[in-house]
Design brief:
3 domains, disordered C terminus, disordered N terminus, 359 residues, Glutaredoxin, 29% strand, alpha+beta, 13-stranded antiparallel sheet, Jelly Rolls, 6-stranded mixed sheet
Length: 359
């Protein structure tokens, strides 16, 4: 019996050592291989930036979470670049349309982002870093070792403290005030998940009909709507990455609990499409309309001009249960996802985020 226990302990120790060695081997930051293009910078190699504290963050223009996160990174760039920290963003797309460098550049321009961005269209860096979410953060010391990893919108004050700690390790004297970012507290009020509308990630579909991929189909919204579901009315076609509206008057209904609603969509048409927006059966007002909404003769509507996020509803500080309805004036709209969110920034910075035009 004792022999079995000893063998078991030795096996555990050997496996632990092997696991630790494998983990340690992965802790050196990867080279920037297979980068399609660099924005805001000439091509960067790992050897160029060794000796600095480095923050690598993954994002995509289709992830509302990483756009919110980008605003925090932007504040860190202002605060810590002068202390010698190197910030590098890596754009890894979720959808094919995001691979267009022009769209990425437009988004960065809208957000006012000036630090280097690597376009990772083949997801090579995503897999090299073992990233799991958009956003993901990797805090790297002056010797190029990945010391801290964070997946998602989380622990911003702790991350900032760790950036300062890595700076001190590198020999810099830094004692800057930590910002009180409240992403976790804000996000507790959002009770509805992101709706992916293509069949690749489709969930929370409320209609009784079964999905037929790549086939035009008529849908009818049921009389009873359940929370955290989306519903279709009219003729639609569900593609792998998006949902296409095939006739005028089609309607998308969303039952949700949040403050703000953003819809990622584009169009097959070269001309802008108009979309009417109703909240709880009524047109929006300037008190609850999103940034992209216009008001005309009692109607609230927005135009689809290119693939991007459209901020359609913002009930300011009021979180609650609502029914959103989008009505399309003609065919051709392509909807990728519906996302919900408040601001991850503290209250004094809330206006800064809300006034961003995501396209």
């Amino acid at each position: 019996m004792k022999r079995i226990i000893v063998i078991g302990i030795l096996t555990f120790l050997i496996m632990s050592t092997l696991s630790w060695s494998a983990l340690s081997a992965k802790k050196i930051m990867p080279e920037f291989l297979d980068v399609s293009q660099w924005i805001n910078s000439d091509p960067i190699e790992r050897s160029f930036i060794l000796g600095k504290v480095i923050v690598v963050h993954f994002w995509s223009l289709s992830s509302l979470e990483s756009l919110r996160d980008m605003m925090i990174v932007k504040e860190w760039v202002k605060k810590y670049s002068v202390e010698g920290v190197e910030f590098i963003g890596i754009h890894t797309p979720l959808f094919d349309f995001e691979k267009d460098p022009k769209l990425i550049e437009m988004t960065l321009g809208d957000l006012g982002i000036s630090h280097p961005i690597a376009i990772d269209n083949d997801s090579a860096l995503w897999y090299a870093y073992n990233a799991l979410k958009r956003p993901s953060h990797y805090l790297i010391d002056a010797e190029g070792r990945i010391r801290y990893t964070y997946q998602g919108e989380t622990a911003y004050a702790r991350q900032e403290w760790e950036i300062q700690d890595l700076l001190k390790e590198s020999g810099r004297s830094v004692d800057l005030e930590l910002e009180d970012y409240q992403a976790e507290e804000e996000l507790k009020n959002i009770r509805t998940p992101t709706f992916y509308l293509g069949y690749r990630y489709l969930a929370y579909f409320g209609n009784d009909s079964k999905i037929k991929a790549e086939v035009p189909e008529y849908f009818k919204r049921p009389p009873v709507l359940y929370p955290n579901r989306f519903y279709l009315d009219g003729k639609w076609q569900i593609h792998e990455e998006n949902l296409e509206s095939l006739r005028p008057g089609n309607k998308l209904s969303v039952q949700y609990h949040a403050r703000s609603v953003f819809v990622l969509m584009g169009s097959k048409s070269a001309q802008p499409l108009n979309v009417d927006v109703l909240l709880d059966g009524k047109y929006l007002t300037r008190e609850n309309g999103g940034f992209d909404v216009s008001y005309f003769e009692g109607r609230s509507l927005f135009k689809i001009d290119r693939p991007r996020y459209y901020h359609v509803v913002d009930t300011r500080d009021s979180y609650g249960d609502h029914l959103l309805e989008l009505v399309f004036d003609r065919e051709g709209a392509k909807l990728f996802l519906v996302s919900f969110g408040g601001s991850p920034l503290k209250e004094k910075s809330l206006e800064k985020l809300d006034k961003i035009n995501f396209g």
